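Teaching note: in complex prediction, the entire set of molecules is handled at once rather than each chain in isolation. The prompt given to students was simply: 'Predict the structure of this complex.' The entities are:
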Amino acid sequence: MEDVAREAGVSGQTVSRVVNARGYVGAATRERVEDAMQRLGYRPNSAARALRSGRFRAIGVIMFSFSSYGNQRTLDAIAVRASQMGYALTLIPVESSARDTVAGAFRRLEEHAVDGIIIVIEAHQLDEAEVEIPDGLPVVLVDSNRGATHPFVDTDQAQGARLATEHLLDLGHHTVWHVAGPAKSYSAERRRESWRQTLEARGVVAPEPLQGDWSAESGYQAGLRLRKDDGVTAVFAANDQMAIGVVRAFREAGRDIPGDVSVVGFDGLPDAAQLWPPLTTVQQHPEKVGALAVDALLAELDGGERAQTPLVSTELVVRQSSAAPRSRTAAPASHPT
Amino acid sequence: MEDVAREAGVSGQTVSRVVNARGYVGAATRERVEDAMQRLGYRPNSAARALRSGRFRAIGVIMFSFSSYGNQRTLDAIAVRASQMGYALTLIPVESSARDTVAGAFRRLEEHAVDGIIIVIEAHQLDEAEVEIPDGLPVVLVDSNRGATHPFVDTDQAQGARLATEHLLDLGHHTVWHVAGPAKSYSAERRRESWRQTLEARGVVAPEPLQGDWSAESGYQAGLRLRKDDGVTAVFAANDQMAIGVVRAFREAGRDIPGDVSVVGFDGLPDAAQLWPPLTTVQQHPEKVGALAVDALLAELDGGERAQTPLVSTELVVRQSSAAPRSRTAAPASHPT
DNA sequence: GCGCCGTGTGTCAACGTCAACATATGCGAT
DNA sequence: ATCGCATATGTTGACGTTGACACACGGCGC
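The expected output is the structure of the full assembly:
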């Protein structure tokens, strides 16, 4: 900076004023300074700036290492939005939900230079880790609400699950089986509860949900159990990957999708349309979630406000893995469970 | 820090020594200082540290916004390794390869506080953007070598493509068709050339490769063309997603996989094993790539050395989408192209 | 003609840390 | 007894930036 000041024949303070477009600077002076900056390739030193101002213009993201596709997209959206707003993004990966691992992430983040934190970790996993979120730093949660002690942003899980369930009922299925996500997951819980409520609202008894862990493998395992029961004609899987596993299980047994069994997923994986058969799914919009999370955090940073953002809604994308049940419906299916 | 020093009855310098475990500090003094830090919840200020030392203990990653699954995994591995080494990770997303967008990313990164940069962008896209990589900052490339002007880390694309191609030939197929990735992609080019060379080394004429863009949709389009030709019995797709599309195209036409046509992918998507049929694929190890990239960068940072890391090799995972051709091979297939 | 205000620019100090140097003590070797 | 060295701690200044304040100039209103 000093060099620039000398080159332009002004004081350092004036250079600072030009850079920050703050205070009075004569037009001619401004031009000279800008020239000098150009010539010398001057870049403000962010460390000094941060030291002086106490602001880093960076936000931290704490996220699970092996994260779902949706969360990856969310991260991406967060990065894009942050960068648009002139903020850098510092990523703190967490490898497991072990207590000290998560706590360690917070510690690292406190030491590192961030003005606020976005946490993209399932609420239940947070609870389990018994982590107290450090205060002093604004925090926004994604994919959880954790007692609403902090602003949170999320997909409208309940609405999406309702769409999927109603779609299958409307096609004429007697009821809808559910392959749920892991017990610890907040999203999984919301999807499961909404599925159950939707069935009950229609006066249908909800079968016992099967437990998965988001992986295609766990969907396959669930499918193996479901296919033993001839009464199963409609399955709503809590994500697309598990839906893939369910499809595989039925296919292996020679059952047709959607002829014998309809399957609906949740997420909107980009390749879901190219699967065989193309998968009916609930399309999420992680990019909106990410952008909203950044906006919410910046609002907290600037205003100290804590406006709750609305949930991001989903759409049902009907493809070829769901259809009306075989006419066999004439003879009402046995209702096990 | 001053508060801690007062609390412990020592000078700030001594606190600094305790924190950094540098220089001589008496055992009793150290304990007192540590106590005081604990009580006061002292955290060193990274901005001041960076200002003083010129080091930020952060590395920047420039990466495409809509990146492949493999790159996401790589990013994740980079984050984990960086964090192990006590470095923070600053993520700079690039939305398109438009020249000013990429250049803007570099500019942002220069202003932001990083000690080095890892670039996870296809080399050809970099070239196209005509970006000159800023010097002064150590750089490591992933997924490209760009004339080897910088250290680079990558999967051994050629070895992987050879494994896939030889596998199909060894099963008894006369030749192997190829669905390539986008022309701009360095990885796609390597995989294509290696496929071609492997065929030629066996004295087989390589059919014209089909052009895809990594997406399952493009694989489907390629599959539509391939299925018109009855001579096609073996297809090597440059990634798993395109393989999925190829499978769908054949299936829709009532052709059996692997009965009529064998399909092999590349990547090792976690769900490839759960597809129907489970997909034979070349397993990559993006987590190794990411870790190596960080190590290479830190080596450059510390030593100024520029040791080239070896390519990360792949393994063929044989599943049910590939098999020997139907006995029809007795009557040699017509060789179109 | 005087003071006031808006404009344009410079000086100084401080942000928190740490390298360099200065100081101080004790112990063994000469 | 003296010196040298290892150990242990304090003092000072500088990293690059910017807020607070001071200063200088010209035009305006009374």
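Point out the following to students. The two ends of chain B are 74 Å apart (CA to CA). The longest strand of chain B covers residues 58-64.
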